[in-house]
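TEACHING EXERCISE
Course module: macromolecular assemblies
Task: Read the component lines below, then compare them to the predicted structure of the full complex.
Student: A.B.
Group: 4
Components provided:
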Amino acid sequence: EPEVTQTPSHQVTQMGQEVILRCVPISNHLYFYWYRQILGQKVEFLVSFYNNEISEKSEIFDDQFSVERPDGSNFTLKIRSTKLEDSAMYFCASSELRQTFNQPQHFGDGTRLSIL
Amino acid sequence: QKEVEQNSGPLSVPEGAIASLNCTYSDRVSQSFFWYRQYSGKSPELIMSIYSNGDKEDGRFTAQLNKASQYVSLLIRDSQPSDSATYLCAVKIEYGNKLVFGAGTILRVKS
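Instructor-supplied answer key:
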């Protein structure tokens, strides 16, 4: 069964450094997402991306964050200057169609980001 | 603020019993409802989706939706120890595609 793949599985970074998290969505999916989950807390929406542009973002997704689809398969989340509070599990998800509201989102295994 | 509320649990049921998990949501224009299972340290795994009032069955799982009461539930029949996990309720509103998650209910199935 097709799946969303994320790399790396664990990233350790010094505070203030830039980090890039990578995702390969399911191949026929057109809508991509990033969520995060701080340890012991809810899964929180960060951003959605369709047709090479951001379609929606949350208050968490400030100027330190950016997303990009650099080629036909990868989808990346960049955090420019990491803070301690950015430590979390980051999940990439994808879904098939934008306009059909009932398309489920399929999640990757996540990248655990640890900021020291 | 659009909220999704779940009882944090833990909900403990004996093996073979029915586990009943509940979720309420605050936004009346919510259209799509999803149940995800999350094992400790792992990613959310889609179990069920439901969009219309009533029941939807898939194997041992039944999702129930009541839009008037803003309530969605998940029943797990013949619960197995492998069902022990956190169950996340997620809601998608009519406009936009983001999911709003509840905090999850911890289910423990005892053999």
